[in-house]
Amino acid sequence: MNSSETPNPSAPDTLDLSTLVQGLQTRLQAAEAQLEVLHLALSRAQPVASTVGSPAGEGETQFLLDLALEQVLDCYQESPQLLSAYAISTSLTSESLHNLQATPELAADPLGQYWVLRIQDGGEILVPRPRTQNLARLNTLQQLFTVTGEGDDWCLQAAARVQTVQRCKRWQLQNRGQIQLGESALQFQWQQRLRRLEQEYQEIIQNQEQLQQLLQTATQGDGGIQTKLSAQQRRSQLQKQYGEPRRILVNTCAPQAYAVYEQDTVFRIVPCNVDLSAAVQVMPATDQSIDWRNSMFGHFHRHETTEVTRARADHPYLPRQPYLCDESGQTWVMAENWEAAERVLVALKGNWMALD
Q: Could you list the residue ranges forming a coiled coil in this record (predicted)?
């Protein structure tokens, strides 16, 4: 075996290292792009001059972060140094330290363990000074934040809200923030982003489903309106040609109906559509009629089977209702008009049965 064929035991390590470096470079590029966006947003911050002078008589200025709360917290978790120019360091006042029952107040303090930041909505938030070691040991933490968990690592889950008492000098706590111990800020941040992405995805799915339902409803609605308009036109055409129908024959054994017209002493029959949706309707299926004697209805109603009978008095849906019975055993109610035919269908409630 020559030297070129000798295995190189370091090759896998070299390959793994190369892959790791490429991954780190990709992550670094993404982080740099995000920092550039944050820098651009922070550069838009507008100064708000205080009308209250410092003890030395110098005017103080606090800068407004032109960022939403969520963006400020993202920046706080990833690159808090970017916020230092917009923060005022504070600590609890001596009065608040000794009077735990009163609403906590904070005062500007260059060595303070907390930052006050003004954000886009005009409010002010309070956060611990970033990278504070042994944060859980601060005896003031419990007065300003709800603390859960254990451990040295910590992450800010919700900023506290404060209200200005004296511009750039003194603030009063409005709402306590939330801090989780034993969890790194970066881990919490990615968990929050994942939750937001999942929530946005679910909202997109829900919106898509609602849109599909609306489109389906609109399509069905348009189709239903068009169908009813066409049926109404057929009904008007038949009325012009024959006048009002003499009878509407409604089958009690199935959703079926016929309209009977008279022309020159000859009965003519028109098949009908039966709509059993929310608004029950009987409408002509065509504007063409045929001679009664040549229709399927006439075939099953020969002269000897056209005797009118009444339903029994205790019938659950149509008591004492007059009807015809054809040779197949199906029974037919003779309604006087379209509205009466629809009332018969409503009374049956979809319970198709013979009346005898």
A: 187-217
